User: Which sequence fits this backbone?
């Protein structure tokens, strides 16, 4: 539900009464993941629970729940011939719980607390992820906007006040400071992503060395391959270990053929996501197995299932 929390809360504030359907179990192949939700107010739908599959049938269940207030759990799966009649042809098995969005759920959504969706299933509150961008430029502006769409809290740091403005970086925290000085007191943890998009020789290597010495989950830097070689040589001169240098994603971004600032932002975030889930970043058409496996390190953040 957290994925559509803002829209759910806005609908409730506008006076809507909602039935919300949540995928509490997915076995095999399915378009979405456990915890995905869709809501219905009797006239319109919020969200998408299965990429289009089974949603018509789920709306019918939502109508019943809106009518009598009684929660229901419905299942669609590979052994259920009716699954094909409602559009589930991907071979997975879905278990969907439908309930009224009551005061307890609304309160938990608003406070970003864990949600007790039904017996045996708890949806964990989302973990805040922080993107720190060094360098105020058009690439940074595009990256800031795209990252916020993905739910990242964004901080942009640059010593030049002329370029580092709220108007240029709407929604981001603005820091006008010398990057290495500010970084010494910055809050960085294992959920932090650091992208050094400027390559100012006055602080580039020192800043990256500090970032690599931090617990940040991802450290990337923009620049040509020649810039990268100079950067690595400078890191070695500073005594940065080969193990730490191996953490550096430089040149930053996946090879998507990006040329515009917006495309480059997509390429950078694609690498960030792939790194977070230890994914191959290969075309799905060339891979086998489940499309949406749950990484061990993120499993607890998605759901807790009772035996």
Assistant:
């Amino acid at each position: 539900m957290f994925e559509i929390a803002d829209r759910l809360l806005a609908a409730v504030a506008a006076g809507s009464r909602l039935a919300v359907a949540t995928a509490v179990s997915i076995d095999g192949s399915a378009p979405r993941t456990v915890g995905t939700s869709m809501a219905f107010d009797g006239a319109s739908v919020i969200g998408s629970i299965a990429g289009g599959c089974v949603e018509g049938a789920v709306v019918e269940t939502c109508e019943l729940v809106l009518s009598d207030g009684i929660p229901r759990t419905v299942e669609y799966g590979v052994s259920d011939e009716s699954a094909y009649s409602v559009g589930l042809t991907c071979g997975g098995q879905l278990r969907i719980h439908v309930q009224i969005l009551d005061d307890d759920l609304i309160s938990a959504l608003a406070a970003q607390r864990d949600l007790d969706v039904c017996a045996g299933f708890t949806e964990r509150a989302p973990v805040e992820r922080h993107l720190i961008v060094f360098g105020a430029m058009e690439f940074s502006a595009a990256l800031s906007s795209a990252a916020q769409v993905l739910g990242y809290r964004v901080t942009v740091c640059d010593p030049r006040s002329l370029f580092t403005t709220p108007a240029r970086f709407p929604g981001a925290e603005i820091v006008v400071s010398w990057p290495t000085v500010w970084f010494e007191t910055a809050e960085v943890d294992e959920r932090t992503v650091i992208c050094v998009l400027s390559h100012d020789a006055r602080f580039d290597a020192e800043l990256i060395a500090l970032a690599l010495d931090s617990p940040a989950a991802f450290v990337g830097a923009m620049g040509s391959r020649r810039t990268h070689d100079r950067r690595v040589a400078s890191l070695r001169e500073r005594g940065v270990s080969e193990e730490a240098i191996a953490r550096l994603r430089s040149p930053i971004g996946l090879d998507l053929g990006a040329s515009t600032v917006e495309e480059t932002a997509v390429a950078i975030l694609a690498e960030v996501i792939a790194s977070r889930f230890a994914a191959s970043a290969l075309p799905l058409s060339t891979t086998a197995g489940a499309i949406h496996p749950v990484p061990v390190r993120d499993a607890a953040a998605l759901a807790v299932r009772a035996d």
Q: What stands out?
A: Residues 295-307 have pLDDT under 50 and may be disordered. The CA atoms of residues 157 and 175 lie 5 Å apart. The chain has two domains: 2-123, 130-276. The radius of gyration is 23 Å.
